[in-house]
């Protein structure tokens, strides 16, 4: 399982680093390896930098000045986390304007200058957004002019994604409880010495 820096172990690790306990000790106390610790440090560094903090403020808040922050700085400057293949927002707006005018997916994608797979991906995302906003399956289908087959596939994919999210959240919760118990047990043993 891929733990995030916001997990219980991640928060414990970042707090320990901020308290200047060192990378190895912080990782050991959080129950993770150094590589995971560096990944969490990078995530936190990039989040602080994108949040508007200067380099000095970020290093002060994190309690760490690392040579790796030069590489992290490039990632922070790259933008607000957009995927490198993601097209400009204006392109998607053009797609939706053409599609909403009654054109098909392939023609709207062509008019926007993107491949049909981008158009289909945007339709799937819009379907999921409508369903999350409380639209019924039929209402979302009518609004997006989808066939029964496409609607059924989109609904199956949405249900599978929701199940994966629930399972991942449950697994993360269980891992947080387990690691918190281990941390508490180690702390009690250390305090009794």
What can be said about this structure in brief?
The chain is built from 10 helices and no strands. By secondary structure, the chain is an all-alpha fold.
Characterization of this structure:
- It is a single chain.
- By secondary structure, the protein is mainly α.
- The protein has two domains: 1-81, no CATH class; 89-158, no CATH class.
- The chain has ten helices and no strands.
- Helix 7 packs across helix 8 (116-132).
- The chain is elongated.
- β-strand percent reads under 5%
The helicity comes to over 70%
Count the beta strands: 0
Shape: elongated
Please trace the helix and strand order, writing H or E for each element.
HHHHHHHHHH
Number of helices, counting only DSSP H or I runs of 4 residues or more: 10
Instruction: Give the low-confidence spans.
Output: none
Q: What's the domain count?
A: 2
Mean pLDDT: 83
Write the layout of secondary structure elements.
Blueprint: H1 8-18, H2 23-30, H3 34-50, H4 55-62, H5 69-77, H6 89-100, H7 105-112, H8 116-132, H9 137-144, H10 148-192
Quick tags:
2 domains; 193 residues; mainly alpha; elongated
């Amino acid at each position: 399982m891929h733990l995030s820096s916001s997990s219980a172990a991640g928060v414990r690790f970042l707090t320990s680093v901020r308290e200047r306990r060192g990378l190895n000790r912080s990782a050991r106390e959080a129950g993770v390896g150094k590589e995971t610790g560096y990944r969490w440090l990078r995530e936190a560094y990039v989040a602080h930098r994108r949040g508007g903090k200067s380099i000095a403020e970020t290093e002060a808040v994190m309690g760490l000045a690392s040579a790796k922050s030069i590489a992290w700085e490039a990632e922070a400057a790259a933008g607000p986390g957009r995927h490198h293949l993601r097209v400009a927002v204006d392109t998607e707006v053009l797609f939706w304007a053409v599609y909403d005018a009654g054109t098909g997916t392939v023609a709207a994608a062509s008019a926007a200058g993107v491949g049909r797979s981008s158009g289909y991906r945007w339709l799937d995302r819009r379907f999921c957004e409508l369903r999350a906003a409380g639209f019924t399956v039929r209402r979302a289908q009518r609004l997006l002019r989808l066939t029964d087959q496409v609607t059924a596939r989109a609904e199956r994919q949405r249900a599978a994604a929701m199940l994966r999210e629930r399972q991942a959240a449950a697994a993360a919760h269980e891992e947080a409880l387990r690691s918190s118990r281990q941390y508490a047990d180690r702390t009690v043993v250390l305090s009794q010495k």
